[in-house]
Specification:
Blueprint: E1 55-58, E2 64-75, E3 82-86, E4 95-106, E5 117-126, E6 129-134, E7 141-142, E8 147-151, E9 157-165, E10 171-183, E11 193-194, E12 196-201, E13 210-212, E14 223-226, E15 240-242, E16 247-252, E17 255-256, E18 260-269, E19 272-283, E20 294-296, E21 305-307, E22 312-320, E23 326-329, E24 331-339, E25 383-387, E26 390-394, E27 397-398, E28 412-415, E29 422-425, E30 445-447, E31 486-488, E32 496-501, E33 509-514
Length: 520
């Protein structure tokens, strides 16, 4: 497993304390604690290994249990890029899928810690349409009895993946997916009703993200619901599907990022709107709703909703903005839909609303962070003797004021009120150098001072007293890239010390200071 250390060649770097695992975070002003240990399942073993080769085993009632392994996928240092690639790893005969369970493994079969490398997302595109998907919450899609996804060997499969490497070290991984499959030749196949995926997300596009800023939204600035709380009313028509024929909704799950609380699926008929299902989060994270140590509920097996032509199905996603900002957030709800009616009318008949979880605490989410790391307190560091106009980022290091630096390079860059400090990401792909292979994005994201503790899935957070974020400095074909290499701090910042981190590579920490001109 890669070590969480930055390259030290050519630089004097302060020694960092070793990463400590299996540690609960004790953070000030924490959100409500997780459920007592007695009600929480045991965390999976860190020694768990999955097969690195595709396998098929015969189960009961004609069901085949398939373990597919896609890759190896080579991951560059600091990578956070989106790829679309052909996918030929699939069954060799026609049939139906009734279960889908994703994961990510190293080449030795072990599962990476999510603070090292994780599956930001993977989408299985079938015949041009998104069918299954996975995020780091790793929700399993299990069809109710009698339903399944039809599969033909002539189908076109494509893998859309975004694997996030939080370290400066290259690695290789496999994307795995476990499927329950009923061959078309099995007697049980005749009784399976086909389903398809109706994809709903609140933004749309190839990288559907929004920002949930600390202190914004409703409930006194503690909850942000997209699109309801969006400043632009034009986005409120996103995440909608107008039903064109009689169909049944048979399964729903929700995708959220850290900070997410729930996704809501709603139906509107004749001007009346009802909640069909709320995909709630269950945070195993000791610090609350701040990390990937989470599971999301799915619909129970007896949930069936009849919809008719003209019904509008919509969704929204809600984030906790009481404690931190959540940049590039998502809210997605894929729906498994069958033709015809086999459920209940949601306006005249009752239906279950309590969801179920598909897994408990996972070992890969065990490193929470927040312990002492040996980094200095920027509030006590000296500043530069003269104002600084630019800080370059090279080899995962902020050129001035990086908390790992010593000597003059460790002094905080100083600016005066009304001035900006400009950051330049030299690790980004250079649009003027076509042979340059680097696609390393960095951010400058405000965090609460001193922001100098150990990196983990729950630390640091974008919880600065003043919220600012540069976006992902760099270039690329998708919306995650800011399409620029520079960013300047707001000129409106009051005097004081401002801590920041890179939310793509959170071990990167720095600070700068705004000081008054002498004589003012």
């Amino acid at each position: 497993m890669p070590a969480l250390s930055r390259p030290a060649a050519g630089r004097r770097v302060r020694a960092l304390a070793p990463i400590v695992t299996l540690m609960a975070v004790l953070l000030a002003a924490a959100l409500p604690a997780a459920a007592p240990a007695a009600s929480t399942p045991k965390r999976t073993s860190a020694k768990l290994k999955l097969s690195t080769t595709s396998t098929v085993t015969q189960g009961e009632n004609g069901v085949q249990h398939m373990h597919f392994v896609y890759g190896p996928v080579k991951i560059n240092p600091g990578q956070n890029s989106i790829f679309f690639e052909p996918n030929t790893v699939r069954p060799k005969e026609d049939g139906y899928f009734t279960r889908f369970e994703p994961n990510l493994i190293y080449q030795d079969g072990t599962i990476p810690r999510v603070d090292v490398v994780h599956l930001h997302h993977a989408v299985w595109m079938i015949n041009g349409s998104p069918t299954w998907a996975a995020g780091e919450e790793k929700t399993a899609a299990i069809m109710p009895p009698g339903y399944g996804y039809p599969y033909r060997t002539t189908d076109r499969w494509q893998m859309n993946h975004m694997i996030h490497n939080l370290t400066p070290n290259a690695t290789s991984v496999y994307i795995t997916y476990d499927l329950d499959f009923v061959p078309a030749t099995a007697p049980q196949a005749a009784a399976i009703q086909p389903v398809r995926t109706q994809w709903l997300d609140v933004v749309g596009g190839s990288y559907p993200v929004f920002d949930a800023i600390k202190g914004t939204g409703h409930a006194g600035g503690t909850r942000y619901t997209y699109p309801d709380d969006a400043a632009d009313p034009g986005v409120r028509n996103a995440g909608r599907w107008t039903v064109g024929r009689k169909q049944t909704l048979v399964f729903v799950w929700g995708h959220l990022h850290p900070g997410g609380l729930y996704d809501d699926l709603k139906i509107t008929r004749n001007g009346v709107t009802k909640l069909l299902f709320r995909a709630n989060t269950k945070y195993y994270e000791p610090a609350g709703a701040v990390s990937w140590d989470v599971a999301v509920t799915v619909t129970p097996t007896d949930w069936r909703i009849n919809v008719q032509p003209g019904d509008v199905i919509s969704m929204s996603g809600t984030y906790d903005t009481s404690r931190a900002s959540w940049y590039e957030s998502m809210a997605i709800m894929p729906i498994s839909v069958a033709d015809g009616w086999s459920g209940v009318d949601p306006f005249t008949q009752p239906y279950p609303t309590k969801g179920v979880l598909t897994h408990g605490p996972l070992a890969e989410n065990r490193n929470h962070g927040g312990a002492r790391a040996g980094l200095p307190n920027p509030l006590k560091l000296l500043g530069t003797t003269a104002p600084v106009s630019q800080v370059a980022i090279d080899d995962f290091v902020y050129g001035q004021g990086d908390l790992s630096a010593v000597g003059r390079a460790g002094r905080l860059p100083v600016v005066h009120p009304g001035e900006s400090l400009t950051f330049l990401n030299n690790d980004a792909f250079d649009v003027n150098r076509i042979t340059d292979p680097r696609t390393i994005y960095h951010t400058i994201t405000a965090c609460k001072s001193p922001c100098n503790r150990q990196t983990g899935i729950a630390y640091p957070l974008a919880d600065g007293k003043v919220a600012f974020d540069s976006g992902e400095l760099g270039f690329g074909p998708y919306r995650n890239a800011a399409q620029r290499k520079t960013w300047s701090t707001p000129k409106t910042l009051a005097t004081g010390t401002y801590s920041y981190f890179c939310r793509i590579h959170p071990f990167m920490r720095g600070a700068f200071r705004v000081v008054k001109l002498k004589g003012t």
